[in-house]
Amino acid sequence: MDIKAAADIGAGLAVIALAGVGVGIGNIFAALVTSVARNPASRDKVFGLAILGFALTEAVALYALVIAFIILFV
Amino acid sequence: MAAESQTIDALGQFKLTTAFGPLGASVNFTQSNLMMLIACVLVLGTLYIGMRPKALVPGRLQAMAELSYDGVLQMCIDTIGEGARRFFPFIFTIFSFILLGNLLGVVPYMFTFTSHIAITGVLTVLVVVMTTVVGLRYHGLHFFSYFVPQGVPAVLLPLLVPIEVLSYVSRLISLSVRLFANMMAGHVMLEVFGAFVIMLGSAGLMGGWHSFALLPAALSLSINVILIGFEVLVAVLQAYVFAVLTCIYLHDAVHLH
Fold it and tell me: What is the pLDDT of residue B6?
């Protein structure tokens, strides 16, 4: 196999991590909806936590993306 | 640019060039430095000019300055707990510097200095070294008990202590790469969809003019508009996350778990 094709496949494989990130972000917001539905007064406090968790989870997706970029362009 | 060669030059936008002509070139003053300078001037100017009226009922600019100050202070106190005010100036400086850097990057033709890992890396090293020094000053050598989890059987300690140390050290990577990757990925995405507009537009017009010729280009243009809005959200969010994580690290250093 030619090395360029192998690199392209590798970059594709690197972003499989996004599946896990999708599940994670879905979990975070599902939990947010549940907790706000149970206790609407806690909304402000919980929302900040959810956004923090969202950003931390999203970062994992971006690590995968950076690996893919490194494979493709560097 | 991108359309002629039919490849998308997604990373070309992060290349450093020198600003201010030959004078800037002789001291290697890059456009990244220029943007940092602009960010600093904007932060200081907004706070200084905003707070000058010292009105009891704040005007627009003063309200902005007060709101950002109060918001970060509240976040600081909530996260660090006791003794938060000592660290507030540091947190507020880092927060506003990163926030302005991210937000200025969304403006077209402006360079995003936070999209370089050199800059986020230096900020992270500053944060991690500072938290370690704070921990050592507050607790002396007792600080190293931070790496020994409490209530764990002694048999497991040889396994857990290296994990704790590793997770402490890997803050250096996670904090810097998070900010850098968010900014870089966002701008690459904008660039890719921007190139799509040109490529699909020229490809659509190649088959002669008909009513749907520009539809694909218009679609990717509208996606780009949405992405810009998303970028503004990410810019604010990542500055906030950086500040919150700094606060959490400081909390760990001050209170040891």
Answer: 62
Decide: A68 and B11 in contact? Cβ < 8 Å.
no
Which residues, 6+ apart, have CB-to-CB distance to B162 below 8 Å?
A: none
The alpha-carbon gap from A59 to the nearest alpha carbon of chain B, in Å, equals: 5
The SS3 of residue B47 is: helix
Q: What is the pLDDT of residues B141-163, one digit of tens each?
A: 888 888 888 888 888 888 999 99
- Give the whole-number percent of chain B exceeding pLDDT 70: 97
Q: Residues of A with CB below 8 A from B181's CB? A: 59, 62-63, 65-66
Tell me which of A57, A69, A71 to substitute to probe the interface with B (most B C-beta atoms closer than 10 Å): A69
In terms of phi and psi (left: phi > 0; alpha: psi -120 to 50; beta: otherwise), the region of B150 is beta
- What CA–CA distance (Å, rounded) separates B32 from B116? 9
The span from the CA of B213 to the CA of B204, in Å, is: 5
Is pLDDT at A60 greater than 50 in this prediction? yes
Query: Strand, helix or coil at A44?
Result: helix
Question: Which position has the token pair 């003063």?
Answer: B62
Helix, coil or strand: residue B52: coil
**B175, B194, B223, B103 alpha-carbon torsion, rounded to 10°:** 40
CB contact under 8 A, A63 and B177: yes
pTM summary value: 0.86
Reply yes or no on whether the pLDDT at B37 is more than 50.
yes
Q: Which DSSP symbol is given to B27?
A: T
CA B55 – CA B63 distance, rounded (Å)? 10
Average pLDDT of chain A to the nearest whole number: 89
